[in-house]
Structure formats: C-alpha cells, structure tokens
Specification:
Shape: rod-shaped
Strand content: under 5%
Number of helices: 13
Helix content: 55-70%
Radius of gyration: 34 Å
Distance between the termini: 101 Å
Structural class: mainly alpha
Strand order of the largest sheet: 1-2
C-alpha cells in the first residue's frame, strides 16, 4: 500500500494535485488506516495516471470525470477524438514554428519562395537594394491578391532577366537613384527601355510586355509604393510616356496623338 506522497511520485504528479483530484471527485479518497494515514493500492496509481494523461491533453476535468465512468467503447471513441484534436494542434503549431522561423528570413515572411528567389537574383546582379525593396513591396499585394498566378509571372520575370539588356536597365536605374530628375542617364534609360518594350511588343505581342491583368486601383497603389522608394521612377515614367509607353506596374502603349510633348 502506498502513502499519498508515494502515489503522487509514481504517477508523476504532486501531492497537491492528488488532493485536488479528490476534491473534484475524480479519484476516490480511501479511508484512513489505524495510524491515521490514507493508503492507496495499485489501482489508484493506474487511475491517477489516466487522469493526469487526459488533463495534460487539455481535456477539462469535468469531461475527465465522464470519461473515467464511460464504457470501453465510449472511452475509445473519446480517445480517438482527443488524438485527432492533438494532431491538428501539432500541425498548427508546426505552421506557427515555420512562420516564426520566417521572421528571420526577411522577404520570405510575406512572399512565396519563387518571388524571394527573384529578389535574390536582382541582388546578385548588383541591383540597388532600394529597387529590390520597391519590387518586394509591389509583389506583396500582388501575391496576396492572386497567389495562383505568381508562378507564371515569375517564369516570365526569370526569362526577362536572362536578357542582359533588361538587367542593364536595372543597373542603370540603380546608378541614377541619387541623381536629379534632369540626370541625362534617366533620359538615356528611357530611350533604351522604350525601344526594348516596343521591340518585345512587336515580336511577342503586347501581352508579353505586361500580362499581370491587375485592376487600376491596385496598379496605382503599387506605383505609389515604388515611387516612394525609388523617386527617379516617377521621372522615368514621364519620359517613357513621351516615348510611347506609360505605367510602372502595368505597362501600356500610348497612342502617338496622346503622347505629351
């Protein structure tokens, strides 16, 4: 026979917990022996371990009491339900762990992995971090709005970056970030970029130049984000419009009769 302290030790709980389970009616409280001590048998150890296990699994004590009195079939079904809930909680906690881990991974917190790879490729090319940030800030709402289209967009972006001319545009813009609006490199960049866009549109169709298909309000939001981070972009867009193209996020041809002088 065991004392209350020995019972608690064998079951892996405290004496206080044993007394609490007595008070809640979960564990029968034996009569005192002639020495004034309560003595517990092996069955009390088994019962206490069952109580502890259910309680640690998050089962309310009121429900624990019901399960201890349930028949074998009902008890087994309840245990299966508890197991399903625990497995769901484990999966959710794993997702939390992954999200917490991404807090240290910068762009990966809010963007799909293929967008992160694209941004890293820009960095590897030597593109200024401010331009990379503008790209990132634009991709966050775009990926949130149309996640199913991101793989296709990224495939197009990777293909375009394989063209040294487009990579050169990024590098030229990087060099012009700290220049004034009248910097001749912006004019040169606008000339080259307009010629490149026109050639792509003529060879592959205008949908190749811009196939995002996003609505105007979102495009304006993304343009604003870009202009805040890369101020020369606003001037570049004005220069492009004179050369037949308009837009930053969503590129469109400007008819000759509508181009600013």
């Amino acid at each position: 026979m065991l004392t209350i302290g020995e019972l608690a030790s064998y079951a892996g709980v405290t004496v206080r917990a044993v007394r609490h389970y007595h008070a809640k009616g979960l564990l029968p409280e034996p009569e005192r022996d002639h020495s004034g001590y309560r003595r517990y048998g092996a069955d009390a150890v088994v019962e206490l371990i069952r109580i502890r296990t259910l309680a640690e699994a998050g089962v309310p004590l009121a429900r624990v009491r019901e399960l201890l009195r349930a028949g074998e079939e009902e008890f087994a079904a309840a245990i299966a339900d508890i197991d399903r809930r625990l497995r769901a909680e484990i999966r959710e906690r794993q997702r939390h762990r992954e999200r917490i881990a991404r807090l240290t991974s910068g762009d990966g917190l809010a963007l799909p992995s293929d967008v992160v790879e694209y941004l890293d490729r820009l960095r590897a090319l030597g593109v200024d971090e401010r331009i990379v940030q503008a790209e990132r800030d634009g991709w966050i709402p775009l990926a949130a709005r149309s996640p199913e289209r991101v793989p296709g967009w990224m495939a197009r972006k990777r293909e375009q970056l394989d063209d040294p001319r487009l990579a050169g545009f990024y590098l030229t813009l990087s060099q012009a970030l700290d220049r004034t609006d009248d910097d001749p490199r912006l004019v040169e960049l606008a000339d080259r970029l307009a010629a490149y866009l026109t050639r792509m549109a003529d060879e592959r169709g205008e949908e190749y130049v811009d196939d995002t298909g996003i609505d105007s309000p979102l495009a304006r939001l993304m343009d604003t984000l870009a202009f805040e981070v890369v101020p020369p972009a606003r001037r570049l867009i004005a220069l492009l419009e004179q050369r037949g193209w308009t837009g930053w996020t969503r590129l469109e041809r400007v008819p000759p009769d509508q181009r600013p002088s």
